[in-house]
Amino acid sequence: MGGQSKGKKKNKPKRKDNRQNRDGGFVDLSPQERMKVRMHEKAKKKTAEKYSVQQLLEKTQAYMDSFDFEMAGLFCQRALDVDSDNLQALDMLGHICSELGDMQKAKSAFLRAMELSPDVGHSKYMYLGQIHTGLEAVDYYTRGIQVLLSALEKQEKMTQAGAVGTTDESDEVPTAKDVSVAYCSLAEIYLTDLCMEEGAADKCRQFIEKALHYHHDNPEALQLMASYLFSTERNQEGKEYLLKSVGMWLPAHKRGAASSTTEEEEEGNEIPPYESRITTAKLLIESEEYEMAVDVLEGLLEEDDEVVQVWYLSGWVCYLQWEKAKQLQEREGGEATEENKEEWTALQDAARSYLTNAKKLYTKLQCDDQPMLEHAEQLLGELGGEMEAEDEAPALDDDYEPSSDDDEGAKAETPMEH
Length: 418
Known about the structure:
It is built from 20 helices and no strands. It has helices spanning 2-22, 31-50, 53-65, 69-82, 87-100, 103-116, 123-131, 134-160, 176-191, 200-214, 219-231, 235-247, 250-258, 262-268, 274-286, 290-303, 308-332, 338-364, 370-383, 389-398.
């Protein structure tokens, strides 16, 4: 009897282990937590029965195209619940999380995709390069370029062999422009984060030249070359590259503000990213191309009117135009005409308005750029102080159209005249 009794005791833990397996390993969870897990499992099963992974990814893409990234994330997660190693879904999830600001989750998705498919698909490396800084970013971009070049070589061989329709529809189809953009990313790191590294200037130039080799009209590459040349005090040559870069996209962008056609949308694909255009404005101001800088900054404000730096730069360029106009009058001598005075007043008021709005937004968004704030306050001091609400009101009704849909128009300011 004693032996049998011991045998029964030994069997008890085994029955407990079996129950753990049936419950998915959550016997230690609270009843509420277990219910949540069971409901999730049930939802996964129902989703798998009702939708295919491809259908879920199509819904994901549709929501991404309409910039509803929260809904896109829900459908993408459903797809991954059904197929956790789906590369397209992982890539989409990484992109969605990047847009939502969840960089840790984005990083996890891209690293998983890299683990599953290290030699196919370059975009995960590009995103990982953006998430990281310094030499880590260089490593990811470099690996991405290797994947790109390998894919392009394979494409070329297939074309020469006359192969048609041999690539999967979900595969990334790389282009020479993709290689150019990737080299731009490398060059920018050596122009900023790693600018103090030994040989940084030479590496920067080398990567820009490679970017232009793969896409000689890439506005971003042309602008990077301008930045590089300005940094080496070759200002006139830098200005030529800068004007060529801006000329590649600004005219079409201004036309697109008035109307929208298929041709203009295609040209719009060449428009550099938002942050890159902020740099464009800075370089144009440095080159004293004030009117062109105003055009770039106005476009940025129409696109997103909650970026402090854009309001600050708009005020700064108006201040510089105001100063230049007064200096020109002084050089020419004689008394200022009424037309001159009106121009000065318009520029002064515009500068005050933009800088006032920059300060308000700085406080609202709790920014941390003390030198910019101090410079804005210094300029306002020279311009006559911050713009009061009653000073702004008349101009709002007549001229200014806010770039957002906010009915209150609280952020709208007097437009620059140029």
